[in-house]
Amino acid sequence: MRTEKFTMERDVLEIGDVVEITEGRLPRSYYYTAEPAAAMSENVALNNRIISKTGTVTAKVPEGSSYILDITFDE
């Protein structure tokens, strides 16, 4: 199991939701989007890429006007 933090601006996901992710590439890292554009990951190092394409929201913590989500992947 692998858990990554995602930031969500709009309150559209709940604990237990299964989300698909898409991968974006930066020059020295990757970033991931929980679709449909619901949340964004932090930058992930090139050697720590997420292999799974679906994950489950396991935690949701309000932080100011946004939320921090933990999304768990089967890796």
Task: Tell me what you see in this structure.
There is one protein chain. This protein is an all-beta fold. It has one domain (2-73). It has strands spanning 2-8, 18-25, 29-34, 39-41, 44-45, 54-63, 66-73. Strands 1-4-3-2-6-7 form a six-stranded antiparallel beta barrel. It is globular. The mean pLDDT is 95.
- Structure summary, number of beta strands: 7
Structural class: mainly beta
How is the biggest beta sheet arranged?
6 strands, antiparallel, barrel
Compute the separation of the termini in Å: 5 Å
The shape, in one word, is: globular
Q: For the residues shown, what is the average pLDDT? A: 95
Task: Give the helices and strands as they follow along the chain.
Answer: EEEEEEE
From the alpha carbons, calculate the radius of gyration and give it in angstroms.
12 Å
Total DSSP helices: 0
* Helical amount: under 10%
Q: Which segments are poorly predicted (pLDDT under 50) over 5 or more consecutive residues?
A: none
Q: What's the domain count? A: 1
Strand order of the largest sheet: 1-4-3-2-6-7
Short overview:
By secondary structure, the chain is mainly β.
Helices and strands in order:
Elements: E1 2-8, E2 18-25, E3 29-34, E4 39-41, E5 44-45, E6 54-63, E7 66-73
Antiparallel strand pairs: 1-4, 1-7, 2-3, 2-6, 3-4, 3-5, 6-7
Features:
single chain, 6-stranded antiparallel beta barrel, globular
